[in-house]
Amino acid sequence: MLGEPTNDLDTDMLAAMEDVLDSWGGCLIVVSHDRYLIERVTDQQYAVIGGELRHLPGGVEEYLRRSRERDAATAAEASGKPQVSAAQQKRAALGGAELRALEKEFSAVDRKLAKTTDARAKLMTKFETHDQSDFDGLLELQQELADTDAQIAGLEERWLELSEQVG
């Protein structure tokens, strides 16, 4: 568990630490405002938003987008003018059946993403316990990991698309 690990480091130490963390085989929990570090050394990003821990499949960019939307809503509320976000406009344009279908797909993708992410974690455990001299077995595990990562990337992309449509 690391709390603001890049504070007060010179560039050489920062690069060395990032290299070590990037190749770390175990679990890391990194709390940091260093966006570059978070994107480089973590597979999953979370943020505290509205007092709740939220998963951010889109990483730092998703967090920044949500922050801009929250700031715009706060500014609109302070000015007394109701603001309708682009997501709310898209949602209003959808018919009831279309919206329900999108919500169902969103829920299904969300569940499948969680399940696939868990499968990836189990696969990483297999890597750690696998006989390191069994190159064929390691190659199979590596291919399975690449397939799982590709599946996660596709699910995250679809999740983001659906979250924009559903709001």
TrEMBL record:
Keyword ATP-binding set for record: yes
Region feature Disordered, mapped onto this chain: 67-89
Pfam family, one: ABC_tran_CTD
Residues annotated as domain ABC transporter Uup C-terminal: 101-164
Gene3D superfamilies cross-referenced by the UniProt entry: P-loop containing nucleotide triphosphate hydrolases (3.40.50.300)
Keyword terms: ATP-binding, Coiled coil, Nucleotide-binding
Coiled-coil ranges per UniProt: 99-158
Molecular function (Gene Ontology), one example: ATP binding
Protein name as annotated: ABC transporter, ATP-binding protein
Origin organism lineage: Bacteria, Bacillati, Actinomycetota, Actinomycetes, Micrococcales
